[in-house]
Amino acid sequence: MGSEINRRDALKRAMAIGLFAVPATSLLSACASSDSGDTTKKPSSQGTKSADNPLGVNKGTALEAFVFKGGFGDDYIKSAEADYNAKYGITIKHTGTQAIGPKLQPRFASSTPPDFMDNSGADNLDTAALAKTGKLQDLTPLLDAPTIDDPSKKVRDVLIAGTVEQGQFGSKEVYAFNYAFTVYGTFYSSKLFKDKGWTYPQTFSDMLALCKKIKAAGIAPFTYPGKYPYYVHFDLLHQIGKVGGKEALNAIDNLDDGAFKTDAVKEVISYYEELAGQGYFLQGSEGMTHIQMQTAWTQGRAAMVADGSWVENEAAPTMPKDFGLAVGSLIGSGPSDKLPFGALYAAAGEPFIVAKDGKNPTGGMELLRIMLSKKQTTNFTNAIKSLTCVQGAADGLSLTPGLTSANAALKAAGPNVLNSRLQDWYKKLNNETIGNLTLDLLSGKIKATEWIDKAQKASDDTKKDSSVPKFKHL
Length: 474
Fold this sequence. Notes:
Layout: H1 24-32, E1 64-68, H2 75-88, E2 93-97, H3 100-109, E3 116-118, H4 127-132, H5 140-143, H6 163-166, E4 177-189, H7 190-196, H8 204-216, E5 220-222, H9 233-244, H10 246-253, H11 263-277, H12 290-298, E6 302-308, H13 311-314, E7 325-328, E8 344-354, H14 361-371, H15 374-384, E9 387-388, H16 401-413, E10 417-418, H17 422-425, H18 427-442, H19 448-464
Parallel strand pairs: 1-2, 1-3, 5-6, 8-10
Antiparallel strand pairs: 3-8, 4-6, 4-7, 4-8, 4-9
Helix pairs in contact: 1-3, 2-14, 9-10, 9-11, 11-19, 18-19
């Protein structure tokens, strides 16, 4: 999210932080009675299509935007809104908030949602549930519309691979548009590592050896946000994918039988048990928010954190100018891993949605099209220190240290890019149930075997729960 779990969601976003997402079951029940089920109805706000107005926005029609105001702030949206206002003769009603879920769940239930939403942050709406109950606009018309800068190209043709798929929920329809492209991993200060003569490791055993040196220097090797322990999953889940391959990660996403009982899971969770057993986490981490975690880290009390590339903007108030922000690729067991060192968790994040029952869904899609213009992607990257989902949008720009490192890591990963969907398909399972197990593991309350057994049971229980929408990798 955009500083949390998809940035930030993370998440992300990236996944954004606040409270935990509203459970899918409550959202489904709240929305069921008001769902029209009509996905082909032409919006009353539809205007005449033209080369300059390919989606057919009805000029003068009101548009309401609700935007998550997290690590990315909301000024970049206001910039795009200004272009929209000038073209279509209105002033968009804009609300910036961190309470997307609590403020908007009642409005979806009463079929009076805003048109356009940045559904990010930990306190967001359950996109999967909204999609399953017919509450969201299929964004395929946007993807097939011409881009603003080059009308010979469709929007879908200029997006980084995986962006479209990130907005799908088990079908060809696209219900979320993830604007930022986030690189996740273990972030550290390159200055600190250089000053201490430390090298970022490639394996669990080498990381444990490095942690011993870091602790001996009077610094905690790691810290994490115990209030939002799923941040650790940015590394943990994708380390499972590095060790066991994409199939191991997909099995977890698909809620397959025994997905948490594989050797890859055992190796990764045993590594985290060892980190906890050796006291390699900053004392008090279990009570921290993500901001407190970042502050402890930038102040030099801890050497590394699992986070997303939004951290450069989010932690800017406390990050020294010579910090030298860098991100490390996923580590694993070694040569036996299914994916080589350099494999990375990276994904389109900061999900935007358009309400089907809004007063102006066409306008909502047009605002997204404006956001994809060179003017707006440049503004976003320069102001927010984050990549967008548009291919080559950062080319020629002067990038910050963290963004330079993230961009280099992404290029080095090549095809070895992982992206678990557990966090947006099954938010409660990932963020709360397994997240709490991870918190207990890192604080030494449980061992690896107990984490594995309980994670598998939680997955099985979710699979059996008919009230929870189910998804599979296509």
